[in-house]
Amino acid sequence: MAEKPHINMVFVGHVDNGKSTLVGRLLYELGEVSEQAMKKLRDEAAKIGKATFEYAWVMDTLKEERTRGVTIDIAHKKFQTDKNYFTIIDAPGHRDFIKNMIIGASQADVSVLVVSVYDTVNNKDEKGNIQLLPQTKEHAFLCKTLGVNQYIIAMNKMDAVKYDAEAYNAVKDALVKFLKPIGYKVDTIPFIPLSAFVGDNLKTKSTNMPWYNGLTFLECLNNL
Prior knowledge:
Layout (H helix, E strand, L loop, with lengths): L5 E7 L6 H11 L5 H13 L15 H6 L6 E6 L4 E6 L7 H8 L4 E7 H5 L12 H12 L4 E7 L8 H15 L11 E3 L23 H7 L1
Parallel strand pairs: 1-3, 1-4, 4-5, 5-6
Antiparallel strand pairs: 2-3
């Protein structure tokens, strides 16, 4: 049997938009993290008042990362799908650790830009227009500059906007307006509405978003 292609995939985006949670939940859904290990992380997170951070802690293993609730160093994990073998690179979103993000992105074949629909749709200028968050724009630009040539946009935290199609479309439009002029072929890039924490549209199609007819996150990974 032919060996599966190997793909380096970096997760980038603004701080607290859910990159580590998405990676952790994906690994859990694929059976790479056991139920027992997940329960331990859940209990440890709750113990220090960080409930809902358990999936992020699959990747954020440093004590300071867990205390502060942000990724500091790049972390690597391996997993495989039906068609591809992946090394995941979880890059920091905080602007203080941009050097580490650049190191992670420079190794990547594919970039997953994680964008919180909830945080972005509530980030408006004085005229009421949606403004993309700073590291959303910076990381997207850097990935393009560093020569990454395959992209997936993970439109995260859909649960926090009650799975609203209008919120999704508003943020998608803002992204397209930014990404297209810097060279992204937006017509070929999947913009997947999902909830990393709940698991919507990661492995199976979510019944919470019947208005979305596109691929799940896992299906997009198989198409790379």
